[in-house]
Specification:
The chain is built from 12 helices and 13 strands. By secondary structure, it is an alpha/beta fold.
């Protein structure tokens, strides 16, 4: 590491020229925070969220009461799903729904795809997943495999990069039912070649379920154009929906209405004509069939605000700034003295780098708490990874410089 370090003046110049600069003031203020580097885990609340929630309680809920279900709430899962699909997934209307947690929706779709594949061809008994996928994905895959008497086929992943097309091609075949992968690796920020991998999976007669939790709202996604079967992603990272915000599920329209493809948690809100309270379950047509119980309406209020802000900015502009932010962070870290011993464990090339950088150093486990006390908030991933998550709409370039200056000071003290 010997390049010339960008100065704070350089960062301020980038802020002055930033076409999305005005968006950084449209979030709730966090007193005492010097640099927020954890937007890839929990995004900041959009400005006006407290008022929107209060208005919802006093108005939609407090005044309209039960009548609001008939007036609008029943349609919110699909309406907000369409907004997410159009803004962040590259999905036409009628294919995305906002409903449960990421884990629950992953289970629903993985189980539905696996059951369908087994019914179509009983030889397809393998679920492919990689060893460095997010824990929820691995645990859900383990559970579905155990329930259905299936086998997990593991791809051994380099934690500094991620799953490659060749690795997928090497394991899929006549026994493959479903491949479950993350579009962007939670650890390294590696962007999988989702379009090509999907084609490889389909050529093997299998289906693919993409986890978009670390890509939705951060990089452009073209679910329809790439031929995706299904996808699930959370709303509390780059969509700024708040802790525990409901996730979204995408199911390609070509798969709707297939009798052998149905999700396993059959609840009354996913039934056709739910208020008839009739005997027997008949799923609603289309993506609404992914809904089970009463939708989390209150929790959808902040999600809507976050997605509307993203729609206003545009995902292409967001991606362009994301790359500029991570380029700045990379240049700063690269200029640090070699004896600090910091390594960047993320892809350098733009085509393969998502919205965060992972730095590696044996001392991060110790200093992360000191960083938090000083108002610099990254997160830590064992054994030695410090993730620098930079949300383009809420993060300034000066914030990146200031925060990394504190990281360097703490490393020098270590």
């Amino acid at each position: 590491m010997s390049t010339v370090s960008p100065t704070r003046a350089d960062a301020l110049a980038l802020d002055a020229a930033d076409p999305l600069g005005a968006f950084t003031s449209r979030f709730e203020k966090a007193e005492g925070v010097v640099a927020y580097f954890d937007g890839n885990s929990l995004g900041r609340p959009v400005a006006g969220t407290p008022e929107a929630l209060a208005n919802f309680v006093r108005g939609e809920w407090g005044t309209r009461l039960i009548r609001r279900w008939d007036e609008s709430w029943m349609r919110w899962p699909e309406e907000l799903g369409d907004l997410v699909g159009k803004t962040a997934l590259g999905a036409a209307c009628g294919q995305t729904v906002v409903a449960d947690s990421t884990t629950v929706l992953l289970y629903k779709l993985l189980r539905a795809l696996a059951d369908h594949q087994l019914l179509m061809d009983p030889r397809r008994t393998e679920i492919v997943v990689d060893t460095d996928n997010f824990p929820t994905d691995r645990y859900v895959a383990e559970g579905v495999a155990a329930e259905r008497g299936m086998t997990l086929r593991w791809i051994e992943t380099d934690t500094a990069t991620g799953v490659t097309t060749q690795q997928v091609a090497d394991v899929v075949g006549p026994r493959t039912a479903v491949v479950l992968l993350s579009h962007v690796s939670y650890r390294s920020a590696w962007i999988a070649d989702a379009q090509t991998i999907t084609k490889v999976v389909h050529r093997a007669g299998a289906m693919v379920l993409w986890d978009t939790s670390h890509s939705v709202g951060s990089i452009p996604i073209c679910a329809d154009a790439w031929g995706w079967d299904a996808a699930v992603g959370c709303a509390y990272k780059y969509l700024n929906g708040g802790p525990g915000a409901p996730a979204h599920a995408y199911l390609a329209g070509r798969l709707h209405g297939i009798p052998t493809l149905s999700q396993p948690i059959q609840g009354w809100m996913g039934r056709r004509d739910p208020f008839l309270m009739e005997q027997g379950y008949r799923p609603e047509a289309g993506v609404r069939s992914l809904v089970s119980g009463t939708p989390p309406i209150i929790s959808m209020v902040p999600v809507r605000l976050g997605v509307q802000l993203l729609a206003e900015a545009g995902i292409k502009a967001v991606r362009a700034k994301s790359l500029r932010l991570t380029d700045l962070a990379w240049a700063i870290v690269e200029s640090w003295p070699a004896d600090l011993g910091v390594q960047v464990a993320s892809p350098r090339e733009h085509l393969r780098r998502g919205g965060h950088l992972t730095l590696r150093h044996e001392g991060f486990d110790e200093i992360v708490h000191r960083l938090w006390r000083r108002g610099v908030i990254p997160d830590f991933r064992r054994p030695d990874g410090l993730r620098i998550g930079l949300s383009p709409l809420s993060t300034t370039f000066a914030e990146v410089w200031d925060g990394l200056a504190v990281v360097r000071e703490e490393l020098a003290r270590h």
